[in-house]
Amino acid sequence: MWVYLHAKISSTSPSGLVGAGLWYDGAVYPGQTQRDNEASNSIGAYFNFGNDGNTTVVTVEAGISFVSPDHARANQEVQEDWKKEILTQFCP
Amino acid sequence: MVGAGLGDWATFGVMALRSAVPTTAHITRHGYRSEHSHETEEQYPGYYSTYLITHSTLAELVAAGTHAGVHRYTFDPASGPATLLIDVAHSVSVPFPTAATGLTPPPLHGKKKKNDGDQFPTASIKYTNLGNVVEVDAVVLNKGSLTGRNGVVSGYLVETRL
Question: Could you tell me if B2 and A64 are in contact, meaning their C-beta atoms sit under 8 angstroms apart?
Answer without folding.
Answer: no
